[in-house]
Design a protein that fits this description.
60s Ribosomal Protein L30, Chain: A, four-stranded mixed β-sheet
Length: 296
């Protein structure tokens, strides 16, 4: 707790006057006009949401209520990704605190992503220029260093840069026979499987990898290559390293599910093998992927 106490001591207060009006895109995280949130965050006047302009450090009980109103949810398996002062998991349940705490932007980001929200460099550039929260350097998101108590208006602007939780594509159906398993290539979107710039498989996608493991178990003679791919944002060396780490993360998970390591090979191609144009946001999203290629 000493670290958190120090953070509160160096708390930086940002006023709403420093924030400019912001536009909300169709896919942005938005607070519904009928949402039930603390009045210290926002109120509804004439059917419209009016955000509080005074900076406030919220306790996690209140902050959880706010983020749920935006459509997010913190599951027990995702609690490991948030500050311990924000929440802990106990007996399969999430336990929050009632102490107001202001965090560094990177800690807020870890909380938002644990609730399922996602942030891209493009959205940071387009929407967060007036907020001391994050910026993009060499194609990567860099967060502010100071602890900040944002106003409801400030949080609304920040959250508008995030995307709503991604709905995972339907899990691939395990091949009913080994012959089909040999031909099956599983293509996994890296944006759903991992957090931004991370190589730790999200817990909510364990069932998808479990199905791949079960399919490989159907025929012990089958081996598989796990290919990691990225878009072209950032340096070649960084992308190569990230793709290797992500491929190895999938390999490690499959070995824990009983697939012999001798049957698996992890290869990172970085940005070398795009399947779509890197000139568009949609194309880059397709290029960020992990593929599992069964072979003899």
């Amino acid at each position: 707790m000493e670290e958190e106490e120090m953070k509160k001591l160096v708390l930086t207060i940002l006023t709403a006057a420093s924030l400019t009006a912001f536009a909300v895109s169709a896919g942005a995280v938005v607070l519904p006009s009928d949402a039930k949130v603390a009045s210290s965050y926002a109120t509804v006047v004439g059917g419209k949401v009016v955000y509080e302009k005074s900076p406030t450090a919220f306790c996690s009980i209140t902050f959880d209520q706010i983020l749920k109103a935006y459509g997010g949810a913190l599951k027990p398996e995702a609690v490991a990704g948030v500050p311990t002062s924000y929440a802990k998991a106990s007996d399969g349940k999430v336990v929050f605190n009632d102490t107001p705490i202001a965090y560094e932007p990177v800690a807020y980001h870890s909380i938002f992503t644990a609730y399922g929200f996602q942030l891209s460099p493009e959205e940071v550039k387009a929407k967060l220029g007036a907020v001391d929260y994050a910026k993009v350097v060499d194609g990567k998101i860099v967060f502010g260093k100071n602890c900040v108590a944002y106003s409801g208006e400030g949080f609304a602007e920040i959250l508008a840069a995030y995307n709503l939780p991604v709905v995972a594509a339907a899990a691939p159906t395990p091949a009913p026979a080994p012959a089909k398993a040999e031909k099956k290539v599983w293509k996994l979107n890296a944006d759903t499987l991992f957090d931004f710039n991370k190589a730790v498989v999200k817990a909510q996608f364990y069932p998808l990898l479990d199905e791949i493991a079960d399919a490989l178990k159907n025929d012990p003679a089958i081996k598989a290559e796990i290919h990691g791919h990225t878009d072209n944002v950032g340096t070649n060396a960084y992308n190569k390293t990230l793709s290797v780490k992500r491929a190895n993360a999938v390999l490690t998970y499959l070995t824990k599910k009983g697939i012999a390591a001798s049957r698996l090979t992890a290869i990172g191609f970085g940005e070398e093998k795009p399947v779509a144009s890197n000139k568009t946001k949609e194309g880059r999203a397709q290029n960020r992927r992990v593929e599992v290629h069964p072979n003899q």
